[in-house]
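Extended Data, panel c. Modelled sequence:
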Amino acid sequence: MDIKVDHVSKAYGEQQILRDLCCVFPEGKTTCIRGRSGCGKTTLIRLLLGLDIPDKGKIEGISDRKISAVFQEDRLCENLSAASNIRLVCTETIDYILKKTEGKTLIFVTHEEQEAVWLKADKTLKFMKDHLIK
């Protein structure tokens, strides 16, 4: 089932963050949300996660889902190499992770240009396949 955001509005006090937002996140597809700082990306994710409720409108297709998020900030151990940092959280093989996420609805949020996001993702997967998974 697609996730549907239907005429959603959200404000914090006098600050209107989202106004009459309509969008669809297709089931089994990857979507990238990008935009300038303060445009409502994090607010939208908070609404999708159920950490906040819309002032107006509704969100359909999330009630029976297991939803998770990752931190925006870096969470690296400075005394470890890049590979060791990845090993701390990557207890499964990359092939297994890719298989597990295949067909899932994935939503990425970034301030960066979309091409940069996919380039980073491609490089990360290649690094992990080449150096971590044997």
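Residues 114-119 have pLDDT under 50 and may be disordered. This feature is highlighted in the accompanying rendering.
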